[in-house]
């Protein structure tokens, strides 16, 4: 029988304090299964059985008696490793999930595509403008593969942690918290706060997405409006639809928005087809197109691609709602099929858009279309309407984190609670409006929030979760390979976060000063 590492909790019954250590034992599944009284001078034999001086055993332990040299006898408990491990292996989280309306593989794939195909794909030509068409092509594929791999790490870690805790599913913040609690000592100390860290990144990302949506709506309306009358400032246009956005965000039941969401998806799909028609009709060319962009602009490319590709906020909910969640991973699973399709579409849109418009490409490809063309005007207004509807769905996540997870539990029930909720919903819209109106630069916003949030949520944190989840499982070369591999991914993510955020903020400050 192999001996592996185990996270053991020492509990001092007199002081009520706990102390975590790591020792060689024959079993590693649940840190709650072994508790023993802590003695500073304890030198128990750990090789064949675990001596427990004071604790209440479960069914996995058998009781025996030890004669302590004529003194009082003490109860010892021996853990039957084989029986216990097989008992834990029998628990499959997938079989214990109760979902009211589980989704099929095809439905999950469509939801994944819908969650990833938004304003980000329309910003890909600008990203290729920053990187050059060769670097953009290769870079998008590499970043896409890294993101896909990191999502696999996160989903796999969630399954293992659910198996250990014997729960059907976990959210992203809960998965991070449970993983950190099993990892190295510095991360174990940070575990109670790790869920809040994830929520903070998710909240900032959703706020940023809403800012991008407001700027996108205003820019596309302005592009059409200035054809027929004197140009209206973007800020004034934002003010015109500020009240409708607030009222839309007051809708507390998402089911009421479902028909409009379906309409928005249909509009988006048709609009993308028309945009591709314009790109092909205009005639892409390699003449005067740069294969490699300026180095100082590469962080903007990185942030934009991350913002466009990542749908980390919907990954775990989608997997948890599947009828056959085992089909989500795997070589030909839903995740790979969806992400490879997304990467292909993003590379195609970015490459065609940049080769067609070159240096003249705008932050969103729609405003680069020939605005005098009626069909192009229709596309801009259709997408503005679709994004307007989708704004409420993006804002719902920010409201859910802010209100439902943090503020609502602290407010007593009554009429005031509903009033406070509406105040929070209004405040979130006003915050996104204020940020968007201050610096209405679509491409810089996309790059900023992509680098700031998704470098952490989509790359660094999943690698840390994977490392912590298996921290006590692997030994020798496999252990060191896993640690080095994950630390390299974490370093890549943190480097992208710092450099991408700094570059985007620098550009925004320059624009703001002008």
UniProtKB/TrEMBL annotation:
Keywords, comma-separated and alphabetical: Membrane, Transmembrane, Transmembrane helix
Domain named Amino acid transporter transmembrane: residues: 102-504
Main location: membrane
Localisation: Membrane
Membrane-spanning intervals of the chain: 133-155, 197-218, 233-251, 263-280, 300-318, 330-354, 374-399, 419-439, 445-465, 486-505
Membrane topology classification: Multi-pass membrane protein
Protein's name in the database: Proton-coupled amino acid transporter-like protein CG1139 isoform X1
Natural source organism: Nicrophorus vespilloides
Gene: LOC108560743
């Amino acid at each position: 029988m192999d001996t592996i590492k185990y996270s053991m909790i020492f509990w001092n019954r007199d002081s009520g304090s706990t102390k975590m250590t790591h020792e060689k034992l024959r079993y590693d599944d649940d840190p709650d299964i072994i508790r023993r009284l802590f003695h500073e001078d304890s030198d128990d034999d750990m090789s064949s059985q675990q001596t427990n001086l004071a604790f209440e055993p479960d069914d996995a332990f058998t009781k025996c008696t030890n004669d302590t040299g004529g003194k009082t006898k003490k109860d010892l408990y021996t853990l039957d490793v084989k029986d216990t491990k097989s008992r834990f292996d029998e628990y499959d989280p997938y079989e214990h999930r109760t979902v009211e309306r589980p989704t099929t593989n095809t439905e999950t794939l469509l939801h994944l595509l819908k969650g990833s195909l938004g304003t980000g794909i329309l910003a890909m030509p600008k990203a290729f403008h920053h990187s050059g068409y060769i670097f953009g092509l290769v870079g998008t594929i590499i970043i896409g593969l890294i993101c896909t791999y990191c999502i696999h790490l996160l989903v796999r870690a969630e399954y293992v942690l659910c198996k250990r805790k014997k729960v059907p599913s976990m959210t992203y913040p809960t998965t991070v918290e449970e993983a950190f609690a099993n990892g190295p000592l510095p991360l174990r100390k940070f575990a109670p706060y790790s869920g809040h860290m994830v929520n903070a990144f998710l909240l900032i990302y959703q706020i940023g997405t809403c800012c991008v949506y407001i700027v996108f709506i205003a820019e596309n309306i302005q592009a059409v409006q200035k054809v027929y009358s004197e140009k209206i400032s973007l800020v004034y246009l934002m003010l015109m639809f500020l009240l409708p956005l607030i009222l839309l965000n007051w809708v507390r039941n998402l089911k009421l928005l479902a028909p409009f969401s379906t309409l928005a998806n249909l509009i988006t799909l048709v609009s993308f087809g028309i945009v591709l028609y314009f790109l092909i009709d205009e005639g892409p060319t390699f003449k005067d197109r740069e294969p490699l962009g300026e180095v100082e602009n590469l962080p903007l490319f990185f942030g934009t691609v991350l913002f466009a590709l990542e749908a980390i906020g919907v990954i775990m909910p989608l997997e948890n709602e599947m009828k056959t969640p085992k089909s989500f991973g795997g070589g030909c699973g839903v995740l790979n099929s969806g992400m490879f399709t997304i990467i292909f579409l993003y590379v195609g849109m970015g490459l065609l858009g940049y080769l067609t418009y070159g240096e003249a490409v705008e932050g969103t490809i729609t405003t680069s279309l020939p605005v005098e063309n009626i069909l192009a005007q229709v596309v801009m207004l259709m997408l503005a309407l679709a994004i307007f509807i989708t704004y409420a769905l993006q804002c719902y996540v920010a409201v859910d984190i802010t209100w439902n997870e943090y503020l609502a539990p602290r407010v007593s029930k009554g009429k005031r609670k509903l009033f406070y909720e509406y105040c929070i919903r209004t405040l979130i819209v006003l915050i996104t409006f204020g940020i968007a109106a201050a610096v209405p630069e679509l491409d810089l916003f996309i790059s900023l929030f992509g680098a700031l949030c998704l470098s952490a949520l989509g790359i660094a944190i999943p690698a840390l979760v994977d490392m912590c989840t298996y921290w006590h499982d692997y030994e020798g070369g496999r252990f060191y390979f896993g640690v080095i591999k994950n630390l390299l991914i974490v370093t890549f993510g943190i480097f992208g976060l710092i450099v991408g955020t700094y570059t985007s903020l620098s550009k925004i400050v320059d624009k703001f000063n002008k």
